[in-house]
């Protein structure tokens, strides 16, 4: 049995894993799906002071409070930054870190890790519709959502994300490098994170591809659960 902690990306809450969790639990694993501070069902905590270290602390506190070890820590999209920070803080609690179509942190701010065209869109949307400190949710079709039912489920639940989490550097000591990394790329989309997939492969990580858009936990939950079960053995 493993402990799986599934960390959502920007704009999402822990609810976004609902279609994946049952298969993991049926296989005998414990599954935790936290929501990061200031987002979705914790949007009432939003403030301009929430940065990436706030979100790292969210997950560290969860694991320490529940005394979790042998953790497979999964981070989707932006949360790749978060799980890198967590791995640096509490490497002994982790069996592995799984970057699901997301960042592999190296200390630089998340905004500096994005392709220039995507980073420009983020900066523009923060200034035009985010009051200078929020990232409005991206249009769902830009995230690979095409089914009306998926759109109707996601759209009301997504909330603006604190911009500081993308502009903060990620404070690292290097301890994260001792935690085995796994990369899952969603290849039926824009492949924004393709460079990280190549990096992971070059570094000898276990890698997987999913024929899915970016929101694999929504559009391909069975396939994602299958890959995660293969990863945890």
TrEMBL record:
Gene Ontology terms, MF aspect: hydrolase activity
Superkingdom of origin organism: Bacteria
Cross-referenced Pfam families: Abhydrolase_6
SUPFAM superfamilies reported for this sequence: alpha/beta-Hydrolases (SSF53474)
Coiled-coil regions, chain positions: none
Keyword Hydrolase: yes
Matches recorded under InterPro entries: AB_hydrolase_1, AB_hydrolase_fold, Sec-Metab_Biosynth_Hydrolase
Residues covered by the AB hydrolase-1 domain: 4-226
Keywords: Hydrolase
Protein name, entry field: Alpha/beta fold hydrolase
